[in-house]
Amino acid sequence: MTQDVPSKTFSQLLWVSAVRIALVGTWFLATVLIGRTLGVVAFGFFVYCQTLIKFVTGCLGDPLDMAVMRQGPILLRTDRPALLQLLRSAFFLRLVIGMAVLLLALAVPSLASGAMFSNPNFKAMAVLTAAGVLGDFLLRSALGYFQIGENFGRFIAVDAVWQSVRVVAVVLLVLLHRLTDRSAVAIYVFAPWIAFAAGWFLLPADVRKPARPHRKDLLDIFHYGKWVVIGLAMAAAYEQLDKLLLVHLRGDRELGIYAAALTWAVIPDFINGILQTVLGPRIAPAYAQGRFNALQKQYLTYAVPAGVAFAIIAMLIAGWVIRVFMSAAYLPAVGVYRVLIIGTLFNTVVTPLPEALMNFIAPRRVILCTALALIWVLVGGYSLIPRHGAMGAAVTIVSARLLVGSIIVWQAHRLAGRVSNSAGNALTPV
Known about the structure:
Blueprint: H1 5-38, H2 40-78, H3 80-107, H4 109-117, H5 123-148, H6 152-175, H7 181-202, H8 205-208, H9 215-249, H10 252-265, H11 267-288, H12 292-326, H13 333-349, H14 352-361, H15 363-417
């Protein structure tokens, strides 16, 4: 007899959330330390390099994650050989893409530097950033298996290695007075490689066993992923475009102010990621069984009160937090933070389950929504950022999140309502 969501899932949610909040919280504090140590301009450059890595992995890595999460939890229970083929195919594609990015940066570093930093002299940073893309892809492969198998003990162990390496390295460099924007980027880049090495030895032997991916699995991932790649490429663009436009239109200092506000405003996004670790594997089965709307309603029962309480506290202590933890140099970030927190709370409280479902079953509709958001950010960014800087970027990205998130929630509710409990082909993309 299977356990229902209120029992097994809720107990998993409690302990996984508690441990991951502690782990991610350590990196959050390390990021605050980086901001205080580097200063506004250098911190802006560090965040810009992070943005480049997240842009590429968001465009090309997230579709592979979703392809695995869409079928993996079901195959785990019904057809392990098919699951292994799916995992190998996804790993092969991640490895090929990551190696291609790194080899391109190594082959033409001046061109890569010019494309990334508008300066051909940042060759080492271009190669380092490309290595960060491959490291992220590798770590996703290990964590993805533990997530779909709901093996959260090993998931947490790998996560602990990842966060610990980053935090210890930052603290040591600060104590030695050797932390720079470039060394901070190096820590961010190489920590996932070390965590992947640890995760590799925790994977079951049949998962680690080398084998050629099947052509059919590659084609299935491509068929599903071709729409998701387009949608997530645009999503990554509009999620990161605010920071890229800030650098282009106002420079590293304005991005440093924005990054300070964003560092605190993304706390709900951390929590959202932690929640999805547990809830993500249950979305596809819940939809296939006609229970998605019930799952969403249950999630909102807990999320809405918590979100309202968080918003009130965040607004009240914003000035104190920025002044005490980031230093007085970042005080212009207070107003920006109060705007950004609205968008991140909306994403955490309202949209996570519907957004995941829509990416599973209606990727073409997600493309249309994301195209609207991208146009919104482009027009809003060029209209507001030149005059209002970081505040203009915050208003632009939050309004885009509210608009697109509302549409996605509405569409997910409609599609889930049409699925009966006996639907056999519920995961066919529409």
